[in-house]
Amino acid sequence: MVRSIDLHKYLPSRLEMCSSQLGWRFLLLRHYVHEKDVEAFEIPPNPDQTVALVTRGSTRLEVYMRGVWRQSNHACGNIVMSPAGETGKLRWHGVEHHETLHLHLPASTISAALDDLRDSRPGLKAFPASLSSPDPLVAATMVSLARAVRDGVPDLYAESAAHFLARHLLTRHAIDPSRGPRSGERARLGRVEDYLRAHLSSPVSLSELAVIAGCSTFQLIRFCKSHWGETPFRRLTRLRMERARELLRHSDASIIAISLECGYGNATHFATAFRRSVGMSPSVYRAD
Known about the structure:
Distance between the termini: 57 Å
Shape: globular
CATH architecture of the largest domain: Sandwich
Structural class: alpha+beta
Number of domains: 2
Largest sheet: 6 strands, antiparallel
CATH class of the largest domain: Mainly Beta
């Protein structure tokens, strides 16, 4: 078991900032700059819950899990969670450098949050590993913490943020077998939607989503119909169109680039899907 403070020795990346310079005791926050391409390497287990947030750029992240390499689009705003005590093997390949913030929450902080939640959520268990899922609240808090490090904010701020994040991560991401069946279905679909949002540019199969949800493909379709009122494919298309509208409105990316980011290898197919969903072509939507 390696202390979080020593983990930078195992990362093939440049450490730019570390909260230890302020003497913060209740969390450790670090800023890294990463090369475009890194071959497989292993991170030893550490006793803390780790959350990595992409703050700039993007890359194709691959993590070795359950005997196979699993990949995701590690894009700005996405988080990766690594449970305490687990060894990590990963690699990445991108077209640009990317930057991340790594947050390490001590086991004592997680335990205190579990004690605080025991009456309302007595069944909470450990965190699962999570690949590139969006969590805007965690992202905003980690960015604020990085700003606080630069401004020299005292430990009290970090302590408050650590307890807030521990509670949020437990209630949003931890396993809770004591919740009712309907709640369990919603939790499964929450993981599926997080996965879909993180893989908008990639092919996604029903069997792959069923593994994420921890159920059969038939159960997954039934849960989707019951809670979403649509199939997983329709949900993925909806999320892709939401992303496409956002990029058309707020970026200068070409329509071809947007179609690729939204999972369409052919710009014509993208334009057809967009017109069917929005009622106008991508170029007209951007100019409107």
